[in-house]
Structures are given as structure tokens and as C-alpha cells.
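Section 5.1 Outputs to date
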Amino acid sequence: MQKRPDLIVCEECDAVYHRPRLGPCEIARCPRCEAELDRDTGKRLERLLPLTVGALVLFVIANAFPIVTIELQGLSNDTTLIGAVMALARDGMSEVALLVMATTLLFPLIQMLVLFYLLLPSSRLERPPGFVLLLRLMQAARPWGMIEVFMLGVLVALIKLSNMAEVIPGPALWSFGALTVLLTAVVSFNPRYIWHICEQKQALRETIGEHAP
């Protein structure tokens, strides 16, 4: 099948257009349905890499330290997210434990690791192995990352527990809060722009190769 990088297809109505040349911060929209066709990413890819690294660091902290410490009548207890998942499994709620682990650990980690790998300078210069598979994997994992839902549930639970015991927020709770903000910025980036940039660079290399002596 012949590739046509000069054409772009609307994801909403399947209309086909010639790919427009965009200036800084410009966005091209479909004349038929007003859906976004393309946008100038500028230096967003360069800014996205440190955000992804920061999100990975916060992810490690959020899972290595206690979320909260609860003190009641001189007794105290704390737990991490992994500890909470294991407690759910021990209490016979294996399905819930699996769901929590998948939506707050596995799928967000997959998104961040794949994006970090694709955003590396060496990966942007040459299409890395498994490029297409990794993009599809990241797209499939995006709807299942629910750290913000978990964070909301934790806050509701802490408010209710504060009437019965002393609740001391742990380092992981603050890390989860910051991670929610960073993941919102990281995951909102459309992976198809990475594909488009790689296609442009590949076409440029082929053009240079054809004109090389």
C-alpha cells in the first residue's frame, strides 16, 4: 500500500484533505464537521518528556510510601497502595483488587513508560522497534488509567474517617495529587502527533537519500 503523508483523514467524518502547512500554534479543523485535523505541536514534544519523567518519579514515590496513617486510641496503622490491593485480595475481594491494581498501577505505568520510550531523542530521530504496536498499546491503555478516580475516592474516605480517628496524610497522598495533575497534561497529548512527526522525518530522510550522490 502506497503511503500518502501529504493527505490527512478526519477522524470524525472520514473526509480526506491535503495536509495543511501550519504556523506556530495553528490548528486545522475539518470544514465539514469542525473536528480537529491537525495542530502545530511546536516544542510540546520537548516539554512533554520532562513531564513524563516527573510523572514516573511521582509514581514511584506514590507507591513506595504510605498513603495515610490512621491513629485511634493510641494505635496507628498505615498502608501503601500495594498494601491496600493485597488487603482486598486477602478479604476475598480479588476482583476488586485486580481492578484497583489495573486502573491505578498497571495501565498508568504502561502509558508513561511507552510515552517515555517514544519521546526519547534517539526514538524521534529513527522509528524505534515496535513503534506501531506501542502506539496502539498506549491508545488502548488510556481509557483504563483512573488515578484521578482513585484520588477522589481516597479523599472521600479520608473525610469520613476523620470523624472517627486521626488521619495523617502520608507522602504518597501528596504524590498522587501531583501525579494526577501531571498525568492530565501528559495523557492529553494525542499520540498521532508522534506518528506524524516520525512520518515527516522518515520522508525527509528518504528525500535526502534520493538526492544524495
